[in-house]
Amino acid sequence: MTRWTALMIAAATALTQPALAQTSDGVPGDRVVVPLPDVSGLSDDAAQALARDLAQMTVITAECPEHDVSGPEFQLMAGTTDALTERLGLDPVSYDRDYVRPAFSVMSEADACDRLGPQVPELIARLEGMGGSTQPVTPGLAEAAAAAADADTETDAPAQ
Fold first, then answer.
1. N-term to C-term CA, the chain
2. Dihedral angle at the C-alpha atoms of 9, 11, 14, 18, nearest 10 degrees?
């Protein structure tokens, strides 16, 4: 299976399973959770342009090993893509046709990796500037820490 086929299958699967989409409360399982930028205030044109940029950079990071990203960076890109597809009301077929296929077309250019790869960190910085982050968060961690602190206080109290 080619990387392109695997990416297409993963994208279609991710877009058809909203239960796995990252929310502010986190996601089930062991997937990395990062804060995502708020894309709700973007104009349609700005949201479409960002979706195009994300699709192209996702292809570059998948097809150009020298421009791979970390798990949290990938999750920031993927989570923002999920939010944009929802914001734009795109179904998986439309997203594939309008964004993924054109993004893969650049790979026919011999210099695509060298020319576009350096833009990946710029896109990550742009998403962080919009309120996203590559710093993983653990849903429920604050509540668990508070509960553990309460339990320690109760066991350290002198017996009466």
1. 69
2. -130
Rounded distance, CA 11 to CA 22, Å? Answer: 15
Task: Give residue for tokens 């791979």.
Answer: 68
Supply 111's token pair.
């210099």
Helix (H, G, I), strand (E, B) or coil at 109: coil
CA distance 90 to 61: 23
Count H helices, E strands: the chain?
A: 8, 0
3-state DSSP call for residue 26? strand
* Per-residue tokens: 12: 């279609």
Total-model pTM:
0.69
Cα–Cα distances in Å, from 150 out to 73, 141, 142? 35, 14, 12
Task: Provide φ and ψ at 70, rounded to 5°.
Answer: -75, 170
Q: What is the pLDDT of residues 105-154, one digit of tens each?
A: 999 999 999 999 999 999 999 999 999 999 988 665 555 555 666 665 55
Q: Contact at 8 Å (CB) between 78 and 51? A: no
